[in-house]
Design brief:
Two copies of one chain form a homodimer. The two termini of chain A are 34 Å apart. The first copy, chain A, is built from eleven helices and no strands. The first copy, chain A, is 71% helix and 0% strand. By secondary structure, chain A is mainly alpha-helical. In chain A, helix 1 packs across helix 2, helix 5 packs antiparallel against helix 10 and helix 9 runs antiparallel to helix 10. The interface between A and B is large, with 58 and 58 residues.
Chain lengths: 217, 217
Amino acid sequence: MTTYQPVGMYSPMLKPDARTKLLDAAIEVIRKQGYAATSVDELCRKAGVTKGAFFHHFESKDALAVAAANHWSATTGALFAGADYHDHDDPLDRVLAYIAFRRDLIQGTPAEFTCFAGTTVQEAFATKDDIRAACEASIFGHAETLVADIADAMRKYKVKGDWTAQSLALHTQAVLQGAFILAKAKGDAAVARDSADHLRRYIELLFKGSTKKEQSK
Amino acid sequence: MTTYQPVGMYSPMLKPDARTKLLDAAIEVIRKQGYAATSVDELCRKAGVTKGAFFHHFESKDALAVAAANHWSATTGALFAGADYHDHDDPLDRVLAYIAFRRDLIQGTPAEFTCFAGTTVQEAFATKDDIRAACEASIFGHAETLVADIADAMRKYKVKGDWTAQSLALHTQAVLQGAFILAKAKGDAAVARDSADHLRRYIELLFKGSTKKEQSK
């Protein structure tokens, strides 16, 4: 998931506590340089808290990473829940508006628009199972928020196939995660937006048998 | 890219040199635990070479990572060049056979079937530009091998759209890279194979306007 707004660091009026400052710092720094390359000392410096405060709130760097993945799920979850792609009567329009929303978030440098959970799980999947599980909950939990709209669209448009609404929801996340990797490799957001366009085209073809461009001809 | 066969480690008859042993070890270990978490000492132990030998062949761990990405490109490149998905008269059949080939490679644990370049670039993209560039060359260079077949298929099937052969080639890599992330998060290869199926379905819809299953009805 994408376009994370730190709860604390840039909103001093909210008087974030040390724990929130550390979670925001972890998400910002790890998205840029990865998990193993990031030290507790660096996170404390970035958050402006003492090492004593760190270990008051977190037993270890791994414990912080689990909490950061959960924090990421909560804050991006609020962003998606409040977004206006839900404001369409037609369930297919909601799904397509979600894809457009995700595409619009792909702006700036890759560290700004890519996914904390997808980045972290690449390093942690085989060696740190508690971090892997928190990242799984983040990615798969977000995919789950799309299932009802896809299932409603399948009913409305009488679409049946050898795939399920849940499988298509997960595929949308696979496309976005992979698009982020290509953007990181190229240092360019445009290649990721192109994949979001292919995803939109796929969904149009699945449900309508043609793309929007063809329909308007 | 996927299913890497170490040149040296498991083929003692080939008498691999220390350099090849280190490259094979780097690919195996980094695919499992990430780049920053892997030390030179660990790579030397795994490869069965001395630290002196390491620094005889590589100036630094970063230099090894660049060489490992190039080694990955060369060895997986040979695997793809020799694969039988090329053996179809119809260019669309070649593209679909490529997707089927990639899907068939998604077996075993994620560390076995996922991509060294895609994994490493997640950590290195913003902080180690030489590693990023080697990973870009690996992923984008492989995508380039698909462009001629896609372009031929577009001509044969008279497919025109607001997308290019190169863009679809890159999208296939985005889907696979993202599918690997979901497989790592879930600890299960099946979710990645599902995304490969969605990719195959997308290409069938783009070129034929229906999926293979629908065509056989």
